[in-house]
Amino acid sequence: MSDKWWWDLTEGRAVTSAERPRDAEVLGPYDTRQAAEDWKATSEARNEAWKDEDERWEGDDRGGTGADPGAGGD
Hints:
The chain is an alpha+beta fold. Helix content is 38%, strand content 18%. It has a 3-stranded antiparallel sheet with strand order 2-1-3. The chain is elongated. The termini are far apart.
């Protein structure tokens, strides 16, 4: 049986699908108990990657040099 794991925010612990109350505030599902317990590190790493991507994208959107692409260099 491949049960999923959840991080129960109320209890502060990893729980299986069978242990998870219907009204619980949880994160997941995760494939393993360890992955559920590492939720915070995973979340922080994803947030950092998204922030870096946003900064890269915003830099590309501004053109990077500030030069007018329509200006001819004659």
